[in-house]
C-alpha cells in the first residue's frame, strides 16, 4: 500500500482573473503528483462534502447557513477575499471533507496527506484571508467529540499566524495550537495560540530548522498527543509573493521530514494539509506544494507503513 492521498476535482474551478488566490493550484498539484507516479488510482481517496452540522462544530450555524445561501453582506465578502459562487460552496465544503478524510486515514495508517486544506484564518463567525471554514479546528473538535483521540496538537508552519484556529480552540484544552509564523506579516492583529513562535523576516533554512527542532523536541514529549495536524504551508519559500521568509526547496523538504519523522518516531499519527502558497508561476507553486507529498512518501517507504 502507498501513502494515502486525498483530492477531488471540485478543489479547482474556473476563477476570475486576475486574482491573488491561486485557485488552480490544487488541480496542478494533482497533475504534478500523478505525472510523477506518486499519485495513482490505488492511493487516491475522494472525499464527501462536509455537512452543515459538522461545520457547526467550529462555526456559528448562522454563518454556515449564510455562506451556503449566498447571504453574506458586502463587508463579509470583502473580508473573505473570494467571490461567492455555487462552485465555491462545493469547493469549500468538499475540501473540509477532504481534511476530515485525511485525518481518518492518518489515524488508520499513521500518515496521510491532503492536496488542499489548512484554512487557518477562518474564524467562528466570519471568513478571512481566503479561508471560509477552519478545517484544522473542525478536525480537532470532531475527533475529540467522537472520542477517537484525547489530545490533538496542531503544528502550523504556514508563514501566516493561524489566528482563526487559535481563537476557535482557545478554550479547548485538549486541542493545542502551535504557530510558527513570520512576525511582521498578515494578520496585522495576532491572536493568542497556545504556543506562538514569531520568526523574523528573512529567516533562512538553517535558522528556521533550528527553531522548529527545538519546538518539536519540547512540545511533543510535553503533550504526547494522539494526533498531529500539520499545516505545511509553502509561503515560507524565498520566492513566495506573500511570505517574507527565505526557505529554499531543500529547506521545505527538510522541514516536512523533520515534522513527520519526529511525530512518527513517537508513534503519533500525522494528518498533513498543504496550507498557503502564492506565486504567479502556478506550476512552480504546485511543485513546491508537492514537496510535502514526496517527503511523506519517502518516509512512508522508509518506515514500512501501510
From TrEMBL:
Similarity remark: Belongs to the histone deacetylase family.
Organism name: Halopseudomonas aestusnigri
Keyword rRNA-binding found: no
Keywords associated with the record: Hydrolase
Top-rank taxon: Bacteria
Domain Histone deacetylase per the UniProt entry, residue ranges: 19-282
GO molecular function term, any single one: histone deacetylase activity
SUPFAM superfamilies, A to Z: Arginase/deacetylase (SSF52768)
Keyword Hydrolase: yes
InterPro entries, per the entry: HDAC_classIV (IPR044150), HDACs (IPR000286), His_deacetylse_dom (IPR023801), His_deacetylse_dom_sf (IPR037138), Ureohydrolase_dom_sf (IPR023696)
Pfam families per record: Hist_deacetyl
GO biological process: epigenetic regulation of gene expression
Name under which the protein is recorded: Acetoin utilization deacetylase AcuC
Amino acid at each position: 500500500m502507498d501513502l494515502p492521498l486525498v483530492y477531488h476535482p471540485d478543489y479547482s474551478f474556473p476563477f476570475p482573473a486576475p486574482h491573488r488566490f491561486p485557485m488552480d493550484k490544487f488541480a496542478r498539484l494533482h497533475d504534478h503528483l500523478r505525472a510523477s507516479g506518486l499519485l495513482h488510482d490505488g492511493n487516491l481517496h475522494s472525499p464527501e462534502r462536509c455537512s452543515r452540522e459538522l461545520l457547526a462544530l467550529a462555526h456559528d450555524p448562522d454563518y454556515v447557513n449564510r455562506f451556503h445561501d449566498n447571504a453574506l453582506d458586502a463587508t463579509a465578502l470583502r473580508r473573505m477575499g473570494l467571490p461567492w459562487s455555487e462552485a465555491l460552496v462545493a469547493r469549500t465544503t468538499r475540501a473540509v471533507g477532504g481534511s476530515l478524510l485525511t485525518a481518518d486515514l492518518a489515524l488508520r495508517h499513521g500518515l496521510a496527506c491532503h492536496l488542499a486544506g489548512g484554512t487557518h484564518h477562518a474564524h467562528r463567525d466570519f471568513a478571512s484571508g481566503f479561508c471560509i471554514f477552519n478545517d484544522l479546528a473542525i478536525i480537532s473538535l470532531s475527533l475529540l467529540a467522537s472520542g477517537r483521540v484525547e489530545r490533538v496538537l496542531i503544528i502550523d508552519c504556514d508563514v501566516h499566524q493561524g489566528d482563526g484556529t487559535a481563537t476557535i480552540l482557545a478554550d479547548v484544552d485538549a486541542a493545542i495550537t502551535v504557530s510558527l509564523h513570520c512576525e511582521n506579516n498578515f494578520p496585522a492583529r495576532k491572536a493568542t495560540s497556545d504556543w506562538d513562535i514569531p520568526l523574523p523576516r528573512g529567516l533562512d533554512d538553517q535558522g528556521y530548522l533550528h527553531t522548529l527542532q527545538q519546538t518539536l523536541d519540547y512540545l511533543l514529549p510535553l503533550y504526547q498527543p494522539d494526533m498531529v495536524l500539520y499545516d505545511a504551508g509553502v509561503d515560507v519559500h524565498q520566492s513566495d509573493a506573500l511570505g517574507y521568509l527565505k526557505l529554499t526547496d531543500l529547506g521545505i523538504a527538510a522541514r516536512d521530514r523533520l515534522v513527520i519523522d519526529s511525530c512518527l518516531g513517537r508513534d503519533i499519527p500525522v494528518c498533513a494539509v498543504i496550507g498557503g502558497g502564492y506565486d504567479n508561476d502556478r506550476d512552480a507553486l504546485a511543485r513546491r506544494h508537492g514537496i510535502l507529498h514526496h517527503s511523506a512518501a519517502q518516509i512512508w517507504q522508509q518506515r514500512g507503513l501501510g
